[in-house]
Design a protein that fits this description.
Layout: E1 2-5, E2 10-17, E3 22-27, E4 32-38, E5 55-64, E6 67-74, E7 78-86, E8 90-99, E9 109-111, E10 117-119, E11 136-142, H1 159-177, E12 180-184, H2 194-203, E13 208-213, E14 225-230, H3 237-247, H4 271-293, E15 298-306, E16 318-322, H5 329-335, H6 338-355
Parallel strand pairs: 11-12, 11-13, 13-16, 14-15
Antiparallel strand pairs: 1-2, 2-8, 3-4, 3-9, 4-6, 5-6, 7-8, 7-10, 14-16
Helix pairs in contact: 1-6, 4-6
Amino acid sequence: MTQAADADAFTVAFDVIGKPEARVLHLRNPERIAVDFEDTLSAAALDAPPDNALVSASRHGLVAADRYRFIFTLKGAASAELDRAATANGETLSLTIRPATSGKVAAASSSRPAPRQNAADAGPDVPAAVPQGRVLKVVLDAGHGGVDKGAVSKSGTLEKEINLAMALALRDALQARGDVEVTLTRDDDTFIPLEERAAIGRRERADLFISIHADSIRYADLRGATVYTLSETASDELSREIAASENAADRFAGEEWQRDEPTVFDILLDLTRRETVSFSEHFASSLVRDLRREDIRLINRPKRSAGFKVLTAPDVPSVLVELGFLSNREDEKLLTDAAWRKDTAAAIARAVMDFFGEKVAEPRKPG
């Protein structure tokens, strides 16, 4: 591996054996360019960057069992592109970082044996997008199921049934809008431990994991949707109570799913987890903004955080959406209304597609 710089660009050449999949990411706070290699390990030493105007530092290491990452800390806004050329033993992948051109939107890029794809410029608050030409992968998690009923309203409405109905509606809405691959953690009345739900997101290499719920709370007048992200300390008492309720689902799991290690919060120390949390926070903020624009009722301060076990995949951006409260009669009426679920699913699907910067297709018409 070699690094070089001139007045116009900073370049890195990766000599690899074989033809591994590689992806460029634009990370923020601070500004960084990262290159992820799938199923690859580095045997090269990484020297300090040569004197240049674009990159201040570099580091590398495993961020998952099957992913190796190189990170280049930027001195200012920049764009990056990754090229590849065949060699006798494999390929040389060339990363080129250049000063940003204002007005462009950031995007991650995948590098397979295919034409060049770019990671474009971005402002500090714009999240990385799925590269053009690659299918967006979303995992939808219908909370509870099987022996775990979840919340139960006074009239007998079961949360597990609402969650599944909404997950199915959101799957259909996403698949109708464009090139999206949707995986459900469950598509019937099955109990799945929380750890396994998060593991499904990792196995699918999902770009986004959405856990769907409709809880109950002791405040009967509380209603509206909430979007949660993972945090070590709950943002407020309500969030702490909701997380404790959702995490209690594992009381139905066998002993093999009730291990104490790793703890929910140990993983927060991992580099990838910190970056994933940042991405999740960006998406949660965007989703709240879009739901409000779509006139979906939200609670006061609808973006919150707590220690939800189902959100702990270290390399999959994850959010938990509480659609409303079965303890509130008005919310229950909406949650049990198929038309409301369809409209809400369509609003969430639009928010997902807009966030990832995909060119959204018109919904496909039956027949």
